[in-house]
């Protein structure tokens, strides 16, 4: 049975072939190049400003409230970690400074979450990627990073019944924070039971990510949180696609 891996990038200025380096790492581990599809949507996202053509449909107060609330969750999550898990000065930074560190990510999250035109265009790309993968193999592995994990999650809630998905990876996912902000629900029943397993990879020093199990208690499939020690710096700790443990987990899912 052949498998196809679908990569979905996160916020930022991802290049169209963003997944090629990760694919090369997988090829080395597997001994053969796996079938792969990249879902690229960076050209559809705002570049960090609420003004301009792409961001014109966004409500300024809604966006600012979202950014502030998300940033406070980041700060609160860092402060709630046990002292032995606090690696550096990031954990004593003021909330405003942490918000500035992830400002572009937050703007692009808002662009996707609150601008229906952007949301629909990105979802079209995601569905196209899944359809391409369906035509290439029997089983699908999805690896969604950061905002890409939300894009994939939203798509699966609508279309997973048409796919045979063996593993869904969320890497550095903000879904826990979005759930706590009531921007997404914990009703995973909308994702059909033909999803084999959901693996959520997270690092405690990643300002975006959290374990997801506590936020999504009711499910018809296995959701497993996997701690990945990506980095001690809060920005570099969000780079899962270049992490050896991430590559090993992806390779195991492709066997």
CA-CA gap between termini: 10 Å
- Uncertain ranges: 49-56
Category from helices, strands and their pairing: alpha/beta
Order of helices and strands: EHEHHHHEHEHEEH
How are the strands ordered across the major sheet? Answer: 2-1-3-4-5-6
Radius of gyration of CA atoms, rounded to a whole number: 17 Å
Tell me the total number of β-strands: 6
Which whole number gives the mean pLDDT? 87
- Major beta sheet, specifics? 6 strands, parallel
Shape: globular
Strand content: 5-15%
Helix count?
A: 8
Name the helicity range: 40-55%
Can you summarize this structure?
By secondary structure, the protein is α/β, with parallel strands linked by helices. It contains 8 helices and 6 strands, in the order E-H-E-H-H-H-H-E-H-E-H-E-E-H. It is 40% helix and 15% strand.
């Amino acid at each position: 049975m052949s498998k196809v891996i679908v990569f979905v990038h996160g916020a930022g200025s991802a290049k169209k072939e963003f997944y090629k380096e990760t694919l090369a790492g997988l090829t080395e581990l597997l001994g053969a190049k796996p079938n792969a599809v990249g879902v690229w949507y960076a050209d559809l996202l705002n570049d960090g400003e609420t003004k301009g053509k792409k961001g014109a449909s966004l409500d300024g107060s809604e966006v600012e409230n979202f950014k502030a609330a998300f940033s406070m969750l980041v700060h609160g999550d860092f402060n709630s970690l046990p002292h032995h898990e606090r690696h550096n000065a990031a954990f004593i930074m003021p909330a405003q400074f942490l918000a500035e560190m992830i400002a572009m990510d937050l703007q692009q999250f808002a662009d996707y979450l609150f601008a229906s035109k952007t949301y629909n265009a990105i979802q079209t790309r995601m569905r196209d990627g899944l359809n391409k993968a369906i035509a290439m193999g029997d089983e699908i592995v999805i690896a969604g990073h950061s905002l890409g994990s939300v894009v994939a999650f939203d798509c699966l809630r609508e279309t997973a019944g048409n796919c045979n998905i063996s593993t869904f990876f969320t890497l550095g996912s903000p879904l826990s924070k979005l759930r706590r902000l009531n921007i997404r629900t914990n009703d995973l029943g909308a994702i059909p039971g033909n999803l084999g397993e959901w693996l959520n990879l997270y690092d405690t020093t990643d300002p975006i990510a959290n374990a997801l199990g506590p936020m999504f208690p009711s499910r018809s499939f296995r959701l497993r949180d996997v701690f990945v020690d990506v980095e001690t710096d809060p920005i570099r700790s969000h780079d899962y696609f270049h992490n050896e443990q991430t590559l090993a987990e992806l390779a195991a899912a492709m066997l």
